[in-house]
Design brief:
CATH topology: N-utilizing Substance Protein B Homolog, Chain A
CATH architecture: Orthogonal Bundle
Helix content: 55-70%
Number of helices: 8
Family: Belongs to the NusB family.
GO molecular function: RNA binding
Number of domains: 1
Largest sheet: none
Pfam family, one: NusB
GO cellular component, one term: cytosol
Keywords: RNA-binding, Transcription, Transcription antitermination, Transcription regulation
Mean pLDDT: 90
Strand content: under 5%
Structural class: mainly alpha
CATH superfamily: NusB-like
Length: 163
């Protein structure tokens, strides 16, 4: 599993915990980072923070898009894990030009297959594919990423950079 895949899973854990507990994802992330530091575990991959920050800063628009394009599913009706997977993947598909859409979608579908139901994986795939197809018409400006933190982490760890 690549460093970015691990970071996505960790970010998903943070988003899911925040959703279930009704707290902010940055607070959950800070708490997890502090626990890791206290226990002597390695620091979280910087890409986790990038993902959490990106989802949180665009959360209102992400939720609006999910509500609009999820056809028959309100945001509140979606299972919390699916909602968290979709928030994470929509951020990567629409705001991160350094991540190919196919990679973000594939990773999200894989997470849904591992953590939710077969139906969820198909739903995630369809919804993200639809948003990817129309993203040019949504008027969203991708974030400017000078040097993705995950690539810095991978290079420092001696790993090959991943998409």
């Amino acid at each position: 599993m690549s460093a970015r895949s691990k970071a996505r899973k960790r970010a998903l854990d943070v988003l899911y915990e925040a959703d279930i507990r009704g707290t902010s994802a940055p607070d959950v992330l800070a708490s997890q980072a502090e626990r890791r530091l206290d226990s002597g575990d390695p620091a979280l991959n910087a890409y986790v923070s990038e993902l959490i920050g990106g989802v949180e800063s665009n959360r209102e628009r992400i939720d609006e898009l999910l509500s609009t394009y999820s056809m028959g599913w309100s945001l509140e009706r979606m299972p919390a894990v699916d909602r968290s997977i979709l928030r994470l993947a929509v951020y990567e598909v629409l705001w991160r030009d350094d991540i190919p859409d196919a990679v973000a979608i594939s990773e999200a579908v894989g997470l849904a297959q591992d953590l939710s139901t077969e139906e969820s994986a198909a739903f995630v795939n369809g919804l993200l594919g639809r948003l990817s197809d129309i993203k040019g018409r949504l008027g969203i400006e991708p974030e400017v990423i000078l040097e993705p933190a995950a690539k810095q982490d991978e290079l420092m760890a001696g790993e090959s950079p991943s998409p």
